[in-house]
Design brief:
About 55% of the residues lie in helices and about 5% in strands. The longest helix is centred in the first third of the chain and has 29 residues, at about 130-160. The radius of gyration is 30 Å and the shape is elongated. The protein is mostly helical. It has 31 helices and 10 strands. Helix 7 (about 130-160) runs antiparallel to helix 8 (about 175-195), helix 16 (about 315-325) packs across helix 18 (about 340-350) and helix 22 (about 420-435) crosses helix 31 (about 625-630). The strands form 3 sheets. It has a 4-stranded parallel beta sheet.
Length: about 625
């Protein structure tokens, strides 16, 4: 192979060079803007991560799996996964192979951006084809065919998305349509261009036959330059449209992965890390099918993908409308192939809203410290707290802690559990029957965990509650906290600093009691289906322990959607504007998925889910704590 164009340049590369220069400048400005708005601590954390071997390895793995192979989408649907992976991996390998060819055959052109892209135009094959040359010709045709097959599936998906596992897709904006038209034309045009020059620069199983076809039916020499102009123009226009379209995720997703692996999170809905998330959203539409609100078509416009689009356009009104409507169930986040935490963006947006409410924190000083109980009998379980004076101090907490050295378990029921007394009663009896020594943190009512304030974006008010609760928990002298409310568990794990204290949901605690032989349960033969609460599964990653327990008690039947795809009950505290009727339809949709295999009982592990389902279900609904208590032998 040798260079056939004097100077290694032709004017047809201009559209490509204009586009690539524009996108490089845009990316550099965006990078500067992201780092400028990022807190100094986060910037330092990011730069430290670049020299951490473990984080560097994780970055490489995640970029390969998420950006090139699209493993998450493959797990969801093979055809959809192949469509994304074939385009991403195929295009990447075309670029890599092009650079290798330049380095091997025309090393004097290394560093020229357009040369690897248009390599087949600038070189000429001389003499017999070597094994090395044949290998690269084959690779280029193979990867081009891979991309073309993905483009073909993408076109098919546009007209029949259900065949690729998607009932609904995102509505494209004008910039999306322009970029999409270019993307669909880039690789067919490349095939034409390389086929016209295959008789000069060489080719393989794809471009050689097409060159023969063109040579017999078209004037080969007359069509070489126009096709390369068309290919270059399609690339240039694509790059010009890229920052304003959904395809901006192509150059930004890898950067988002690096920021996320450095431990950085969004603190503002539009600046810093959030901007990287916004531009990394591929608008694939997976979150549209995932959202439980979309059981009604009128709610499609409230999907996370559209909120991110409006954030990008700085449309505050539309962004607020969607952020306030969201259930915050986290299903869109769990299924997002890019890992965009849209729920956190919505909370961050709520925090920017003006709020003139004056909060009164005086009630916090009256919160009660749990008192020590060495032998928790049923009588004692009703009086497990001593009231501290309203002016309780840190010294009081230390005294209580000293007095409670023997108590290991603190039971934090939570607000919603107090509204479902069957869970309270069952847990007290399970503690008693297992011989567990425990302290009831909020038997007579306590301080909320702070979740409603966090969801409303009132983090300052939530911090006051968190500080007081932290004092109470640490002052209990217990090294283990058992919670019945998954919402409380998630908040305590993410927002509280409770070093040295183990946090357990009651399903985990019960599972450990059974494994340790402290309680035994009988198999009643009853058919059950388990509903995995949003905050317990997607929020805390607790999936297996409840199933371990239920499998020993009865026949566990499958739900329509399980695990991380479990459907929200509809009673979530997250939404600020959903009406009762809208929630009822979400609840019914979730019940339909749960009862698809006709179980005799629905079992959940959240007091809010229990209360929400019980009001609408024709099938009995119980918490796992009650199921266990009723079947202890």
């Amino acid at each position: 192979m040798r260079e056939r164009i004097l100077g290694g340049y032709d004017n047809f590369v201009l559209p490509f060079m204009i586009g690539i220069a524009f996108i490089f400048i845009y990316l550099i400005i965006g990078l500067i803007r992201i780092f400028r708005h990022m807190p100094e601590e986060d910037r330092n954390r990011f730069f430290r991560s670049l020299v951490s071997p473990s984080i560097m390895l994780k970055n490489a793995k995640d970029i390969l799996y998420d950006c090139l192979l699209h493993v998450k989408i493959f797990k969801r649907n093979l055809l959809l996964g192949y469509m994304h992976a074939s385009i991403a991996l195929g295009w990447f390998m075309l670029i890599v192979t092009g650079h290798i060819e330049v380095a091997l055959y025309v090393p004097q052109r290394n560093g020229i951006l357009y040369y690897p892209v248009f390599f087949r135009y600038f070189v000429k094959q001389e003499g017999d084809l070597s094994l090395k040359g044949a290998f690269f010709f084959f690779l280029m045709d193979f990867f081009l065919l891979m991309v073309l097959s993905g483009i073909g599936l993408a076109i098919y998906k546009r007209f029949r998305s259900i065949a690729l596992g998607m009932r609904r897709t995102t509505k494209p904006c004008l910039a999306d349509r322009i970029a999409l038209a270019c993307l669909w034309s880039i690789f067919p045009l490349r095939l034409l261009a390389e086929s016209f020059t295959a008789g000069i620069a060489g080719g393989s199983f794809l471009t050689k036959p097409m060159n023969w076809l063109f040579a017999n039916f078209l004037s080969n020499d007359l069509h070489i330059l126009p096709t390369w102009w068309a290919y270059s123009t399609a690339l240039g226009v694509f790059f010009l449209a890229l920052p304003f379209s959904r395809y901006m995720h192509i150059p930004t997703e890898a950067f988002l992965i690096m920021l996320r692996n450095a431990g950085i999170k969004a603190t503002h809905p539009r600046r810093g890390f959030a901007e990287a998330e916004i531009y990394s959203c591929s608008s694939c539409g997976i979150c549209i099918d995932a959202c439980p609100m979309n059981v009604q078509k009128k709610n499609l416009k409230f999907s996370s993908v559209y909120m991110i689009r409006f954030l990008r356009r700085r449309n505050a009104k539309k962004t607020k409308e969607i952020a306030d409507k969201c259930l915050m169930c986290g299903k869109c986040v769990a299924l997002c192939p890019v890992g965009v935490d849209s729920c956190n963006l919505k909370r961050a947006h709520r925090a920017t809203e003006n709020n003139n409410i004056q909060y009164d924190y005086s009630y916090l000083s009256a919160a009660k410290h749990p008192a020590p109980h060495n032998t928790p009998t049923p009588t004692q379980a009703t009086s497990m707290q001593e009231t501290s004076s309203p002016a309780a101090t840190t010294e009081d907490s230390c005294n209580v802690a000293q007095a409670q050295k023997e108590d290991k378990i603190l039971y934090f029921a939570g607000c919603m559990t107090h509204l479902t007394p069957s869970i309270l009663k069952s847990m007290v009896e399970i503690f008693e029957l297992s011989g567990s020594k425990y302290v009831f943190a909020d038997k007579e009512g306590g301080v909320c965990c702070g979740r409603p304030l966090i969801l409303a974006g009132r983090k300052d008010a939530a911090n006051e509650v968190i500080a007081r609760n932290t004092q109470l928990i640490q002052g209990s002298g217990c090294n283990k906290v058992v919670l019945s409310c998954p919402i409380c568990l998630k908040v305590l794990k993410e927002e509280y600093r409770l070093q040295g204290i183990e946090l357990l949901h009651h399903t985990q605690f019960i599972d450990s009691l059974i494994k340790e032989g402290k309680i035994k349960v009988k198999d009643n033969g009853e058919s059950m289906v388990y509903h995995n609460p949003c905050e317990l599964g997607r929020g805390c990653g607790i999936y297996r322990e409840p199933l371990n327990v239920l499998e020993q008690i009865g026949e566990l039947r499958k739900a329509g959607k399980e695990g991380k795809e479990s459907i929200c009950c509809g009673g979530s505290l997250g939404s600020l504007t959903l009406t009762y009727d809208e929630r009822a339809k979400i609840t019914q949709g979730s019940l339909n998925a749960l009862t698809i295999n006709n179980p005799s009982k629905i079992v959940t592990a959240c007091p809010l889910c229990l209360k929400t389902f019980a009001d609408k279900s024709s099938v009995p609904v119980e918490d796992i704590a009650k199921i266990v208590r009723d079947n202890i032998c």
